Amino acid sequence: MSFHASRAGQPARELDPWDGILLVDKPSGPTSHDVVDRIRRQFRIRKVGHGGTLDPMATGLLIILLGRGTRLSNEIMGTDKVYEGVMQLGATTSTEDVDGEITGTADCSGVTREAIEAEMKKWLGDVQQTPPMVSAIKKDGVPLYKLARKGQEIAREPRWLHIFEFTLLDFAPPRVSFRLRCSKGTYVRTLCADIGRALGCGAYLAELRRTQSGEFSIAKALTMPALLALKPDDVLPHIIPAHEVRSLTRPAP
Questions:
Q1: Residues 55, 97, 99, 233: which is the catalytic one?
Q2: Which of 23, 26, 48, 178 would staple 221 via disulfide (CB 3.0–4.6 Å)?
Q3: Of 156, 228, 187, 174, whose CA–CA distance to 54 is shortest?
Q4: Given a cut of 90, is residue 148 above it in pLDDT?
Q5: Architecture of domain 81-212
Q6: How much of the chain, in percent, has pLDDT values that exceed 90?
Q7: DSSP helix, strand, coil percent of the chain (3-state; round to 5)
Q8: Is 55 a catalytic residue?
């Protein structure tokens, strides 16, 4: 039987194999909370969370926090992220992604590969980004997306972020495929909208897939159908224990 190391004067706690994280390949459609709720109900786990939201339209790596692993939220959320996505040129939407209503269209036939790459290059390094209205950021305790649904527009303060890589993968107008490595808190759909605005034709995020979060890769993730088909005991080998996660997320000396 294994126990956590105890503090002076406190009894040691037995290690629970459900305390840790689970790497899940989120499908397009459900919210991150939907995935958390399904796992909680399926495996009857009291404490379940996630280490960084993916929008409903997005797919890819969603880190599920289990049991005492929920205490790792800040460490997981604070890591850099890698995405692969598709930007749609020639239109804008109310949410800056494919889930929103079309708010405008423009001719994008004159946009070149060189122009796209030049705009991407401008975003490399330390940059400021104004968060979108359709976001979970709160104003006086109310998420902005709820205010946006009422037609309200609230002034938002720009935030500093860091773009490590912004690479053009395929140029097939009006679709542009890219890879992005960025710091936490980056709104990829807003990057697409800003680039479309700079090009004069508009753009929105058509597809997005998170492939990495810190040291954790989509290659080790379970799809939701595969996960939900498992018996509880068969899930345990896929859980990364909390102490291992801490060693991977701890900043280098």
A1: 55
A2: 23
A3: 187
A4: no
A5: 2-Layer Sandwich (3.30)
A6: 74
A7: 30, 35, 35
A8: yes
